[in-house]
Amino acid sequence: MAEHRSMQRAALLDAARSLLSEGGTEALTFPALAERTGLARSSVYEYFRSRAAVVEELCEVDFPLWAAEVAAAMERAESAEGKVEAYVRQQLALVGDRRHRAVVAISASELDAGAREKIRAAHGELVAMIAEALGEMGHEQPRLAAMLLQGVVDAAVRRIELGAAEDPSVVTDAAVAVVLHGVKG
Length: 185
What we know:
This protein is mainly α. Helices cover 79% and strands 0% of the residues. The protein is built from 9 helices and no strands. Helix 4 (51-76) runs antiparallel to helix 5 and helix 5 (80-93) packs antiparallel against helix 9. The longest helix has 26 residues, at 51-76. It starts with a helix and ends with a helix.
């Protein structure tokens, strides 16, 4: 019984990822989840009390995996500057991943305070990762610099997500250049 519930919950989360990736937060509804999983709509409520609960669990499940991929890329780098570049490149490489698209859709939605706090905490973990590398590079305010750097990454993510005229690799290279060298060019 427990294994069946676990499999159903995983199927619901997978369906939620797909819905968010395909249609944003408006697409994440309990009727749509029921349709995607073959469950009765009332059964969806047995697993999640609200849409926000689905979102919170997606963040709890997916964000650590995504952050681990960013951390692994940074660990492979041999210098602090290389870690910064890996941080940017890995996040932008994940833009097409359904987990990432779900997180982006989630962060754009109107969520309750609990869900927003979990997302903020998860983003704080990313900022902490890069702040250490920025400290190694001699930044006097590595946390502030990390938050600004993440802003550049977020802007690049939006540019890629919008299907901008530039190839994603061009956006990625430009974001790395801005982060490492400023806007001097």
